[in-house]
Amino acid sequence: MSMKPLCVKLSVQPSRGLVDEKFTVLVQNLLPGFQLTIHALHQCEDGHSWEAFAHYTADATGIVNVSEDPSLDGTYSGVEQMGLLWSLRPVPGSKSGLRMRKMNVQTPMVVTISVYQGHQTEGFLDQVLLASVVVERWYMAPGVRRVPITDGKLTATLFLPSGPGPFPGLLDLWGGGGKLVEYRAALLASHGIASMALDYLTPQITEETGKMVDSDYFETAYRVLEQHPQILGSRIAMLGLSFGTSVTFGMAVYSQVVKLSCAVCISGSHVQPIGGSVEQILAYFNKNVAKTRFDENNQVIWRNLLLPIPTDPSLKVEMGRLQCPLLLVVGEDDQNWPAHESAMDMKEMMERAGNSHLLTVLSYKNAGHLIEPPFMPFTRASTFKTVTNPPTKVMVLWGGELVAHSRAQEDAWRKTLVFLRENLYGGMQP
After folding, report:
1. Is 356 a catalytic residue?
2. pLDDT in tens, 34-72
């Protein structure tokens, strides 16, 4: 049965928007009960292709609305408005260990959404295409400015929201992979917070001197934010993921320069030698390298390196001294860091010290380590290059389950934005 004479109509609204904005996929002009496959295809900047697909049956009026109708099978099932994004996975035949990350935030993530006849599972390029739409998802909203930081010491990029400001500021730290990763900072600026992405493990100064940065590096970054004419110097936050949380905890509690309005720590731990530099913290982790485990697929599990959580107070940040609101985001199936156990210990420390009113914990069952902005494809394991000398490549198990982790990303992002707005804007919307 050919659908061509029916002129199948596919619409995606909005077809251009931010990556954390939902869209509606609507297929019309179908025959009642018609079986179809909706397919999403994205080619990364590294040349690898990712796809998602779902099987639907048209209703009595010949319509499929992805926001309301259940997928019967595919890379996701059930009613999932954004399943075509968060269930994206490398196309068959791709190399193992891929992780999707946007490197150039000045271009959109382009996704082609297509409709095929019947319930297909493979060979989409060989199938009869009924309709197709190209969708753009951006990390930078119109008007957001990307400003490379030229301070000789820093490897960083500042993203300024649209408008004259002044805006609250945020220092954004990623984890142990190093490099300058900009997409989360760009997205935060799209929500009204001037955000600086900072490379602190592989910055130019380390490449040149061979020495890892110390607290002075982070204090310099903080001062750049504090003194910027379009930033409210009295309203600055830090956000860290993974190893970035180690730095964030240390600066928030011990720095005489960094005075935070609030902090967000995702998938990390307060376990580190007190007053330790980046190099000393890494050395402490490496000292426990014998606790490394491997799963049945030979994927590296590092969560045990910091377990059991030490009772020795010299081996963890004194959370009782924290003076700013803190949001902890943890996945209970994190196989990379003992984030949940660390959060429980921090809660206990702060309760004993009488400052637990500053703490909010978001803990997600069956979520893993890489809790990213919403609708980012789930990565249970991927290739990881260590910052050791010489660097080594390993396949790391991050943990989590597809649906639970995707839900956690959406919920945590929404609550993170609320937390930042409350503590940086004093309840006012940007």
Report:
1. no
2. 999 999 999 999 999 999 999 999 999 999 999 999 999
